[in-house]
Amino acid sequence: DKHSFDPTNLLHAYKIFTAADHGLLWWMPIVIPAIIGLWYLYKRDHVLALNCAILFILFVAFTASVKQWMAIASFSSRHFVGILSISGIGLAALYDRIVIMPKSRPWLWCAGALFALWNVNLIIQYGAGLIGIQDPYIVSNIAYNTLYELPKKLIGILYSFLFNRGSFITP
Protein backbone atom coordinates (compact mmCIF):
# COMPACT_ATOMS: atom_id res chain seq x y z
CA ASP A 1 0.00 0.00 0.00
CA LYS A 2 1.43 3.38 -1.03
CA HIS A 3 0.21 5.13 2.14
CA SER A 4 1.60 2.58 4.56
CA PHE A 5 4.19 3.08 7.26
CA ASP A 6 7.72 2.23 6.12
CA PRO A 7 10.60 2.91 8.57
CA THR A 8 13.17 2.58 5.75
CA ASN A 9 11.96 5.96 4.48
CA LEU A 10 13.65 7.60 7.47
CA LEU A 11 16.80 7.84 5.36
CA HIS A 12 14.94 10.36 3.21
CA ALA A 13 13.73 12.61 6.05
CA TYR A 14 15.76 15.54 4.71
CA LYS A 15 13.48 15.58 1.65
CA ILE A 16 10.63 16.72 3.88
CA PHE A 17 12.51 20.01 4.18
CA THR A 18 14.22 20.30 0.80
CA ALA A 19 12.16 18.44 -1.82
CA ALA A 20 11.47 20.65 -4.83
CA ASP A 21 7.86 19.48 -5.15
CA HIS A 22 6.52 19.74 -1.57
CA GLY A 23 9.47 20.56 0.72
CA LEU A 24 8.53 22.39 3.89
CA LEU A 25 11.26 25.06 3.64
CA TRP A 26 10.24 25.99 0.08
CA TRP A 27 6.54 26.16 0.77
CA MET A 28 6.61 27.51 4.32
CA PRO A 29 9.91 29.34 4.87
CA ILE A 30 8.55 30.79 8.12
CA VAL A 31 9.74 27.51 9.64
CA ILE A 32 13.36 28.73 9.32
CA PRO A 33 13.01 31.58 11.84
CA ALA A 34 10.87 29.30 14.00
CA ILE A 35 13.74 26.81 14.26
CA ILE A 36 16.16 29.65 15.00
CA GLY A 37 13.77 30.78 17.71
CA LEU A 38 13.94 27.36 19.36
CA TRP A 39 17.69 27.88 19.66
CA TYR A 40 17.12 31.15 21.54
CA LEU A 41 14.48 29.43 23.65
CA TYR A 42 17.05 26.80 24.62
CA LYS A 43 19.20 29.50 26.20
CA ARG A 44 16.29 30.50 28.46
CA ASP A 45 14.30 27.32 29.01
CA HIS A 46 16.20 24.08 28.33
CA VAL A 47 13.30 21.77 29.15
CA LEU A 48 10.72 23.45 26.94
CA ALA A 49 13.16 23.85 24.04
CA LEU A 50 14.31 20.23 24.25
CA ASN A 51 10.73 18.97 24.42
CA CYS A 52 9.83 21.04 21.36
CA ALA A 53 12.91 19.81 19.49
CA ILE A 54 12.18 16.17 20.39
CA LEU A 55 8.54 16.49 19.29
CA PHE A 56 9.65 18.17 16.05
CA ILE A 57 12.18 15.41 15.32
CA LEU A 58 9.65 12.67 16.13
CA PHE A 59 7.09 14.33 13.90
CA VAL A 60 9.60 14.52 11.04
CA ALA A 61 10.56 10.87 11.59
CA PHE A 62 6.94 9.75 11.58
CA THR A 63 6.09 11.83 8.52
CA ALA A 64 9.14 10.51 6.67
CA SER A 65 8.00 6.98 7.44
CA VAL A 66 4.77 7.42 5.51
CA LYS A 67 5.42 6.48 1.89
CA GLN A 68 3.36 9.34 0.43
CA TRP A 69 4.36 12.04 2.92
CA MET A 70 4.28 14.76 0.25
CA ALA A 71 0.48 14.44 -0.03
CA ILE A 72 0.74 14.76 -3.81
CA ALA A 73 -2.38 16.78 -4.68
CA SER A 74 -2.42 19.15 -1.72
CA PHE A 75 -1.03 22.57 -1.07
CA SER A 76 2.10 22.59 1.03
CA SER A 77 2.84 20.08 3.75
CA ARG A 78 -0.46 19.44 5.45
CA HIS A 79 1.20 16.74 7.50
CA PHE A 80 2.90 19.48 9.49
CA VAL A 81 -0.24 21.10 10.84
CA GLY A 82 0.42 19.14 14.03
CA ILE A 83 3.62 21.02 14.73
CA LEU A 84 2.32 24.53 14.14
CA SER A 85 2.31 25.05 17.89
CA ILE A 86 6.03 24.24 18.03
CA SER A 87 6.66 26.70 15.21
CA GLY A 88 4.62 29.27 17.12
CA ILE A 89 6.72 28.75 20.24
CA GLY A 90 9.90 29.13 18.20
CA LEU A 91 8.61 32.30 16.54
CA ALA A 92 7.56 33.72 19.89
CA ALA A 93 11.02 33.05 21.33
CA LEU A 94 12.66 34.72 18.33
CA TYR A 95 10.30 37.68 18.61
CA ASP A 96 11.10 37.97 22.31
CA ARG A 97 14.80 38.02 21.45
CA ILE A 98 14.54 40.55 18.63
CA VAL A 99 11.95 42.90 20.12
CA ILE A 100 14.44 44.10 22.77
CA MET A 101 16.35 45.84 19.97
CA PRO A 102 14.11 48.84 19.10
CA LYS A 103 15.66 49.46 15.67
CA SER A 104 14.88 45.91 14.61
CA ARG A 105 11.13 46.14 15.19
CA PRO A 106 10.21 47.56 11.77
CA TRP A 107 12.36 44.92 10.11
CA LEU A 108 10.65 42.24 12.17
CA TRP A 109 7.21 43.36 10.97
CA CYS A 110 8.43 43.59 7.37
CA ALA A 111 9.89 40.08 7.53
CA GLY A 112 6.66 38.72 9.01
CA ALA A 113 4.61 40.42 6.30
CA LEU A 114 6.90 39.03 3.58
CA PHE A 115 6.57 35.48 4.92
CA ALA A 116 2.78 35.83 5.05
CA LEU A 117 2.58 37.35 1.57
CA TRP A 118 4.85 34.64 0.17
CA ASN A 119 2.58 31.94 1.54
CA VAL A 120 -0.58 33.67 0.29
CA ASN A 121 1.11 34.11 -3.09
CA LEU A 122 1.80 30.36 -3.28
CA ILE A 123 -1.74 29.51 -2.20
CA ILE A 124 -3.20 31.77 -4.89
CA GLN A 125 -0.87 30.41 -7.56
CA TYR A 126 -1.70 26.86 -6.56
CA GLY A 127 -5.44 27.55 -6.55
CA ALA A 128 -5.24 29.32 -9.91
CA GLY A 129 -3.39 26.41 -11.49
CA LEU A 130 -0.17 28.38 -12.02
CA ILE A 131 1.64 25.78 -9.94
CA GLY A 132 0.94 22.20 -11.01
CA ILE A 133 -0.13 19.57 -8.54
CA GLN A 134 3.05 17.53 -8.89
CA ASP A 135 5.37 20.08 -10.45
CA PRO A 136 8.68 20.82 -8.78
CA TYR A 137 9.10 24.15 -7.07
CA ILE A 138 11.17 26.29 -9.40
CA VAL A 139 11.90 29.71 -7.94
CA SER A 140 12.18 31.38 -11.35
CA ASN A 141 8.72 30.09 -12.35
CA ILE A 142 7.19 31.23 -9.07
CA ALA A 143 8.80 34.67 -9.48
CA TYR A 144 7.62 34.92 -13.10
CA ASN A 145 4.08 33.95 -12.10
CA THR A 146 4.16 36.48 -9.25
CA LEU A 147 5.33 39.37 -11.42
CA TYR A 148 3.60 38.66 -14.76
CA GLU A 149 0.86 36.03 -14.63
CA LEU A 150 -0.75 36.65 -11.25
CA PRO A 151 -1.41 40.39 -11.79
CA LYS A 152 -3.30 39.58 -15.01
CA LYS A 153 -5.50 37.03 -13.25
CA LEU A 154 -5.83 38.51 -9.76
CA ILE A 155 -9.17 40.34 -10.26
CA GLY A 156 -10.75 37.20 -11.74
CA ILE A 157 -9.34 35.05 -8.94
CA LEU A 158 -10.67 37.43 -6.28
CA TYR A 159 -14.08 37.54 -7.96
CA SER A 160 -14.22 33.74 -8.11
CA PHE A 161 -13.07 33.47 -4.51
CA LEU A 162 -15.78 35.84 -3.30
CA PHE A 163 -18.69 34.80 -5.53
CA ASN A 164 -17.93 31.42 -7.12
CA ARG A 165 -15.76 29.32 -4.79
CA GLY A 166 -16.89 26.13 -6.45
CA SER A 167 -14.80 27.10 -9.47
CA PHE A 168 -11.67 26.21 -7.50
CA ILE A 169 -12.80 22.61 -7.13
CA THR A 170 -12.14 20.41 -10.12
CA PRO A 171 -13.77 16.98 -10.33
Can you tell me about this structure?
The structure is a single chain. Helix content is 61%, strand content 0%. The longest helix is centred in the C-terminal third of the chain and has 25 residues, at 139-163. By secondary structure, it is mainly alpha-helical. The chain has 7 helices and no strands. The model has no long low-confidence stretch (mean pLDDT 82). α3 (31-44) packs antiparallel against α4 (46-65), α3 (31-44) packs across α5 (84-98) and α6 crosses α7. The chain has helices spanning 15-18, 24-27, 31-44, 46-65, 84-98, 105-127, 139-163.
Distance between the termini: 24 Å
Compressed to H and E, one letter per element, the order equals: HHHHHHH
Radius of gyration: 18 Å
The number of helical segments is 7
| Amount of helix | 55-70%
Q: What is the number of beta strands?
A: 0
Q: Quick check: average pLDDT?
A: 82
Largest sheet: none
Principal-axes geometry comes out as globular
Structure classification: mainly alpha
Q: Residue ranges: pLDDT <50 for 5 or more in a row?
A: none
- The amount of beta strand, in percent, is under 5%
